[in-house]
Amino acid sequence: MFLQRLSIQNFRGLSASQIEFSPSLNVFYGDNGVGKTSLIEAIYFLSCCKSFRTNSIDNLTCYNQDWFFIDVVASKHQTGLQHSINVRRVKKQNRVTVDDTIIRKASILSQLLPTLVVCSERQRLFLASPQTRRNFLDWGLFHVKPNSINLFSKYERVLRQRNSAIKQGQSSDLIKTWDQELIGMGEQITQLRLWFIKELSKILNRRYSSSFGDNQFVINYDAGYGKYGNLSDAINGGFEQDCRYGYTRYGPHRSEFNVVYNDRNVKDDFSKGQIKLLVYFMVLSQAVLIEREKDIKPWLLFDDFSSDLSVDSVDMVFSSIIKSGCQVFLTSAMEFTRYVKNDPNVCLFHVEHGNIKKMI
Known about the structure:
Elements: E1 2-9, E2 17-20, E3 25-29, H1 36-48, E4 67-75, E5 82-90, E6 93-98, E7 101-103, H2 106-112, E8 115-118, H3 120-123, H4 130-144, H5 148-167, H6 172-176, H7 179-207, E9 217-222, H8 231-237, H9 239-245, E10 256-261, E11 264-265, H10 266-269, H11 272-294, E12 299-302, H12 311-323, E13 328-332, H13 337-340, E14 346-352, E15 355-358
Parallel strand pairs: 3-13, 3-14, 8-12, 12-13
Antiparallel strand pairs: 1-2, 1-4, 4-5, 5-6, 6-7, 9-10, 10-11, 14-15
């Protein structure tokens, strides 16, 4: 699916606009604070009814308004069949339709419009919280194996119930009624994540590791079992401490991963620019895996694209983005004319004070 046309009104500080996109690369440039990020935030919201900048959806509405809309026409790559997708938020309620059919689950929309984003938080992937890294992993996994969302939802429900029983000081027998279900689903989640990391590592090393040198990346996954070899032993062995601390301390909700290059953790050894470059390549690797497993190309959203990158790194990642074959939306404070000059597959937009002007 590629995005052909977008109409938007009352979204953050953006002026009411109708924009025609390239199925390949779309670049939005301009000074900081003029609305570039808001534009790709709108595209992201379209794909999942969430923001990558805030948990408060009401902050997305233009000042002194209580509604916004995002309407798009999107086409399937294989058939060219067009779809009309409309997202409206009125008085703190979302209404989503695809070809006039109401969509009640954001996960359905996300499967239809798979989207990967590199924003300011994602650029700090290895310096942020473990939850940020789990989200990075699970968002890619969801697009490859959409049914995994049901497993994660059930696991979270059982985890909440077990934690609630612990906090309320319920009997050991009652607390342990949740254990077998929690263990079974937790082990399934671990196996899914391990599979995803294994496949992601293969793609990352095959396509992109040479950009950093002669070594290979190793992605290490900590399943969240502590000193225990499996989740069953962790849940049983940690029961008394769970009751003392008031929550379940072991399981995939406590998992973590790190990336090692040349026997050193990239968090400690890579520069800020190198980390950002690696994050780009990990996202591009996710896109390759999604296409391989589901035969679809996700949208790629890159915010503040060129900051912290050397000229050589910009050239390198820009070339890789073009080769991905995905529809790409990126923002940058730098002027991109030298990269896109005379390329009919590129649309260049200048953004100023919320106004979006197509240049080429």
